[in-house]
Design brief:
By secondary structure, the chain is mostly helical. The protein has two domains: about 375 residues, no CATH class; about 100 residues, no CATH class. About 55% of the residues lie in helices and about 5% in strands. It is built from 23 helices and four strands. The strands form two sheets. Strands 1-2 form a two-stranded antiparallel ribbon. It has a two-stranded parallel sheet with strand order 3-4. α8 packs antiparallel against α9 and α21 packs across α22. The longest helix has 27 residues. The termini are far apart.
């Protein structure tokens, strides 16, 4: 029996636009400003004199963005920041941060210093995250003001993202709502669009995904994997399967052409990262195992959270876990409870969906769309969890393309906030349609409480002090060096990572490359140079210089810290 033809899901069809008052739009904007202020409170409270995060990864990202700015000015080779000298192509050891660069580089052109440009580009990107999600919910999906606020706040300013603030490649998520909006628009119009229209929408989505790959590999891969899970569930049920397969057959040339656009758009990504992959190889499952979430990860929100910091103290052996800071992926009581409550009606609905085509099969509707989002999110969490010391992620790790580039598995909730926010916002919209005034007030209070739960305190460091310290250190480097390496005293207060990043900034300030370095990867046979306070460090430096035939003057720079 063949699948019965089906109409486009009613959820995706054009629906009457609800009344949009000026008050509703103003409320959405003000809520976004409040969320941005709350999320970046450490920056605002210091008058932007301090920058949020630690002096490790945030400075690494500032260094890489500044290198790209210098490359745009013609002062440096794009793919080779002055670290791990003389290894070429070291930009590919980390994310390329192109999306953040699109804001960072103009700020530098306007005269902002390195750390200020980093600070403001991050803040502006988080504002765009909120705006893009609000646009998706309000204009594309046509939800009310309060559901729009709730979904956009959850997407842009959530606790897992707050706890990963030092990894700024995870902050710019603005492309994800745009990608989803393109796919929704395509689904709405599939019955009437000519092949050219299908191709243009898919090609635009492909190029956005290419840009996301060059901005943050984790975000792009997690979004793609979630898309595959959603497609698998859509093909499982007769109604959505029939609708998809019918259009797949009709639009195959347009789909194939858009795939070609994606491949062409991914060429810069391949040029940057394939040489690194050949040099370093894929990651092992052991690299990822310590960062696969446990049950306690679902309720842990960080030791700076204003409501739930105490949980880390009562959870048994939480800080004994390797990379325990990566396990802070909880969303708080309101969001967690709301999601669990949403699973109940979805589970009941799914039981009634036919797997085989029947004469009376119903076309896919709003329930199918929301149900598939919820099922795909649940399946992602189920795969990416540890159970009694083992995880089904092992099977995915050895079967899914590209997954061996993923080490920090526990970061996937940041991307899953997109479908979670859509599903919860729709559920809230449905509740508001039936609620009276007291119920509406209670729901608004819960939205406010959920937003407050997400954020806590965050450390930072003084920008002016950091700039002065690095300038003084750079002034100590002799002028006639081919390259240099940093010597740090054994009793120094800074971490090894900070010491290496100090050397990288000195290299950037002086134009003299350094043997030191820090990134997501490192050159083969370089590891001994990381431990720059060990007695064997000078020997590792000498061996590296011989291995790479460094014949010019190799200088030692002593860090007074």
């Amino acid at each position: 029996m063949t699948d019965a033809p089906a109409q486009p899901p009613a959820l995706l069809q054009h629906q009457p636009t609800p009344h949009r008052s000026l008050a509703g739009g103003l409320a959405i904007a003000l809520a976004g400003l409040a969320g941005l202020l709350w999320f970046h409170w450490a920056d605002f409270a210091s008058g932007f004199k301090a920058i949020s995060g630690d002096a490790g990864d945030t400075r690494l990202i500032a260094f890489l963005l500044e290198h790209q700015w210098q490359a745009l000015l013609g002062h440096a080779p794009w793919a080779s920041p002055p670290m791990f000298y003389p290894t070429p192509g070291t930009l590919g050891y980390a994310d390329a941060f192109v999306l953040q660069g699109l804001l960072y580089w103009p700020l530098r052109a306007l005269g902002a210093d390195v750390l200020t440009a980093l600070q403001w580009s991050t803040l502006l990107l988080n504002a765009l995250n909120y705006a893009a999600m609000a646009w998706l919910l309000r204009r594309v999906l046509r939800l009310g003001a309060l559901p729009t606020i709730a979904g956009a706040l959850l997407f842009a300013f959530n606790s897992p993202k707050f706890n990963q603030f030092v990894h700024l490649q995870l902050q710019p998520l603005v492309l994800l709502p745009l990608l989803l909006a393109l796919l929704i628009d395509l689904a709405r119009r599939l019955d009437t669009l000519p092949p050219r229209g299908v191709f243009l929408r898919l090609a635009a989505a492909a190029l956005l995904l290419d840009l996301q790959l060059l901005s943050g590999v984790y975000v792009a891969w997690y979004f793609g994997f979630f898309g595959l899970l959603s497609l698998a569930f859509a093909l499982l049920f007769a109604s959505t399967r029939g609708w998809l397969l019918r259009h797949l057959r009709a639009q195959l040339p347009a789909i194939a052409a858009a795939g070609g656009v994606f491949v062409l758009g991914a060429l810069p990504f391949a040029v940057l990262y394939v040489p690194v992959l050949r040099q370093t190889g894929w990651r092992s499952y052991g690299d990822a195992r310590g960062m696969i979430p446990h049950w306690f990860s679902l309720v842990t929100m960080g030791d700076g959270n204003l409501w739930w910091a105490w949980l880390e103290g009562v959870l048994p052996h939480f800080r004994d876990q390797p990379f325990y800071w990566e396990h802070r992926i909880g969303f708080g009581a309101v969001v967690t409870t709301a999601w669990l409550a949403l699973l109940v009606p979805v589970a009941r609905a799914v039981r009634r969906w036919p797997l085989r085509a029947q004469a009376a099969v119903l076309p896919p509707n709003r329930a199918y769309f929301i149900g598939i989002l919820v099922l795909a999110v649940t399946a992602f969490y189920a795969l990416g969890m540890t159970y009694f010391g083992h995880s089904p992620w092992w099977l995915a790790f050895h079967t899914v393309p590209g997954i061996k580039s993923i080490r920090a598995v526990s970061r996937y909730p940041i991307v899953l906030t997109l479908p979670m926010a859509v599903a919860l916002a729709w559920a809230l919209d449905s509740l508001l349609a039936r609620a009276r005034l007291p119920g509406r007030v209670a729901l608004a209070a819960l939205v406010a409480l959920a937003a407050v739960e997400q954020v806590g305190t965050r450390q930072g460091y003084d920008k002016a002090h950091e700039a002065a310290r690095l300038t003084a250190l750079a002034a100590q480097l002799p002028k006639d060096c081919q390259a240099f390496y940093l010597i740090s005293p054994k009793d120094a207060h800074s971490s090894l990572v900070s010491a290496h990043i100090d050397a990288m900034f000195v290299a950037q300030l002086t134009g003299v490359p350094t043997l030191n370095g820090y990134s997501g990867q490192e050159p083969r046979d370089w590891r001994g140079l990381f431990f720059l306070r060990d007695a064997a460090y000078p020997g590792h430096v000498a061996a590296w210089a011989r291995q790479h035939d460094l014949r010019g003057k190799l200088c030692a720079l002593t860090d007074p810290d």
